Amino acid sequence: MSPRTSTDHTPRLLLVTGPPGSGKSTVTAALADLWEPSVLVEGDAFFAFLRRGAISPWLPESHAQNDTTTRAAAAAAGTFAAGGMVVVYDGVVGPWFLPGFAAATGVDVLDYVVLLPPVETCLHRVATRAGHGFTDLDAARHMHEDFVRATADGAPGAVLRDPPADVPGVVDAVRDALRSGRSRYAVAG
Asked: Residues 142, 58: contact at Cβ < 8 Å?
């Protein structure tokens, strides 16, 4: 990774999202290592808190559950940011959930980056990754389609379509979006 320069934008809260298999977890870990102090908030961990009656989050009937869980994760991320830490958030927060997520953080502005590799890349990664609980290829394809539709006519933040295949390349693309201001999202008051 290239060293930080004085022209870098240090985010307060950087939300990196995309469909399953887009590279979020690997990239966010590398991004969180760029700043100190930093926190990596893994959105999937909040879904693991659900016990009885949990609905698979990709099913249409899970909307209320997903909204509540996403807002809880956002509140935690915002609390860390309010404490002066750079927060990197890793999770599926499509543009359709962004206004609610952003409001729940309590921050006035955040950075939002969508990783959107080709569907074949995402499906291959989901099918071949080890140690990850999510392996549903049909659900992964559906979520990819949701992100494609939601970003087709423009989207908030920066959408990285077909990002580089290597982690340093994606990190550099995210840092470029931060520096240029393309990733900035003003939270509605």
From this structure: yes
